[in-house]
Amino acid sequence: MRLKSFAILAALALSTAITGCSTIGSRVFSNDYGAMTDAGYSLPRIPIEKVPFKYRRQVVEYDTREKPGTIIVDTQNKFLYFVMGDGEAMRYGIGVGREGFEWHGTARIALKREWPTWTPPGAMIKRQPELAKFAGGMEPGLKNPLGARAMYLFNRGGDSGYRLHGSPEWNSIGKAMSSGCIRLMNQDIIDLYDRTSVGAKVIVL
């Protein structure tokens, strides 16, 4: 009798676990990384099965006093949160600045650009002289370091020089290897771009 009761409890526990996974899974957007055409550009499929589960776009519980529409960047854990309200946020995996290029503070989205031109700053050209050929700007495209979208961060001093942007380097998500900008997978930056308004507050922790 005790064995039968244990079997019933085990079955109920398994059923609950499966139901819970199903509920969570419906809020993880693993199927949104396929090939797509955007503004005439053909974005390739991201092999999302190679990206750690935690870095895939998903709705999560998030307790904050910041108002909906705010973006909070957790550089330590490599997450970007778009505050949705009601204790929830859309979470994206990100790549952040490598050692010596980290930063934190509060800024706002001053400009948004689809398929932006990339112009390396002078300091970057000094470090990497081969980039001098792009001093006048690199045309938009699949190889452009800013990817499919860019949002420009300004603070009280004006243009901070930092961006939230897409990247063709999906395997850099979860790592610290940028020059300070916050990078997302192209399919994720398109999603975030559509949710974000000019003037939105951005907090980098």
TrEMBL record:
InterPro entries per the UniProt record, alphabetical:
LD-transpeptidase, LD_TPept_cat_dom, Transpep_catalytic_dom
Question: Which Gene3D superfamilies does the entry mention?
Answer: L,D-transpeptidase catalytic domain-like
- Write the signal peptide boundaries: 1-19
The protein here is known as: L,D-transpeptidase
Keywords, sorted A to Z? Cell shape, Cell wall biogenesis/degradation, Glycosyltransferase, Hydrolase, Peptidoglycan synthesis, Signal, Transferase
* Xref: PROSITE patterns: LD_TPASE, PROKAR_LIPOPROTEIN
Family membership, please give it: Belongs to the YkuD family.
Q: Which GO terms describe its cellular component?
A: extracellular region
Q: In which pathway does it act?
A: Cell wall biogenesis; peptidoglycan biosynthesis
- List GO BP terms, alphabetically: cell wall organization; peptidoglycan-protein cross-linking; regulation of cell shape
Q: Which residue intervals define the domain L,D-TPase catalytic in the entry? A: 69-205
* Molecular-function GO term, any one: glycosyltransferase activity
Output the superkingdom of the source species: Bacteria
Q: Where is the active site?
A: 165, 181
